[in-house]
Design brief:
The structure is a single chain. It contains 5 helices and no strands. With 79 residues, it is mostly helical. The model has no long low-confidence stretch (mean pLDDT 84).
């Protein structure tokens, strides 16, 4: 299967899926740092800038869970 076929297969799967976790994970892979790095933080307090920096370090280090994963954890706890 060449790249074009893989792309078409992926797009078909994404278009037909109802798996929110899959969608969240693909989105995170494709847009992981683009939106985050475009947020201007220079006018924030030093404390908030430090918190943002730590959060970005955690994110880049893979120390996070997706929205879908959190929903699953909450569902297990409360339902």
């Amino acid at each position: 299967m060449d790249s074009k076929d893989k792309k078409e297969t992926i797009l078909k799967k994404l278009h037909s899926t109802t798996d929110e976790q899959l969608i969240e994970e693909v989105y995170d892979i494709l847009y992981s740092n683009e939106e985050i790095k475009s947020i201007p933080v220079a006018n924030f307090s030093e404390e908030l800038q430090n918190k943002i920096s730590r959060a970005l370090d955690d994110y880049e280090g893979g120390r996070y869970i997706t929205h879908g994963q959190m929903k699953q954890k909450l569902a297990q706890l409360y339902f």
